[in-house]
Amino acid sequence: MKHLVALIALLTIATAANASLLSDNFNDGSISDWTVRAGTGWVASGTAAQKLASDDTLSTISKSFAGVSSGVLTLTYDVIIDGIYRPFNAALTDSTGKGVFLAGYAGNGYVEIGGGTTSNYGYSGSNLSKIDAPGFVSGKSMPIKYELDLATGELKGYIGGGLMKTSMINLAGIGDINTVAFTAKKKINSLDNVVLIPEPASMALLGMGSLALLRRRKQ
Ligand SMILES: [Ca+2]
Q1: How far is the CA of 141 from the centre of ligand 1 (A)?
Q2: Distance (Å) from CA 217 to ligand 1 centroid
Q3: Which residues contact 53 (CB under 8 A, 6 or more apart)?
Q4: Gyration radius of the chain's alpha carbons
Q5: Ordered structural domains, the chain, with CATH
Q6: How far apart are CA 68 and CA 85, in angstroms?
Q7: What CA–CA distance (Å, rounded) separates 77 from 127?
Q8: How far is the CA of 173 from the centre of ligand 1 (A)?
Q9: What mean pLDDT is reported for the chain?
Q10: Is 38 exposed, middle or buried (0-12, 13-18, 19+ CB in 10 A)?
């Protein structure tokens, strides 16, 4: 019985840890549940979201989720950059629009990762580091992952599964993170499979606390 209780507790922890805050594969051919924050927005195309080809202004779409203020946030998405040097950035922000830039320009063989805090959804070149990413080429879908530790401000950026860059971000003055935004400019950029997951760190601690409580009750 004791083991059964422990097993149920562990399963509960695993389930909670895997729950995503936001997930969208655009397979329904719609991006109507995303908000246009700037520019003319993006369009649904097949089973991905694509930037309008004729737009010359920065265009931002965003989506809100249940706010988080602790633990590690993991954001993954697939992106195709069409061009040699194109602005394409993701941002995680609070309800006032303050937050963290995750990437800036990208092109054949490289991307800029890192950044600092942002007060809007547009592109900012400040504090971004250009890094080599040999697999990141025009027209090819690349999986991007960011891990942001809300306690320490450590930001890790992965491209194609490999760790590309670790940065330290000053999160002072930023409230609960509750919005993800994507900005692009010119040409066609493709966005797909956006998933935002809170890391199990805080969940696991909570779970272990519950487990200890259960054990104590059984004794
Ligand atoms: Ca899709």
Answers
A1: 11
A2: 47
A3: 187, 188
A4: 19
A5: 20-200 (2.60.120.560)
A6: 33
A7: 22
A8: 35
A9: 78
A10: middle
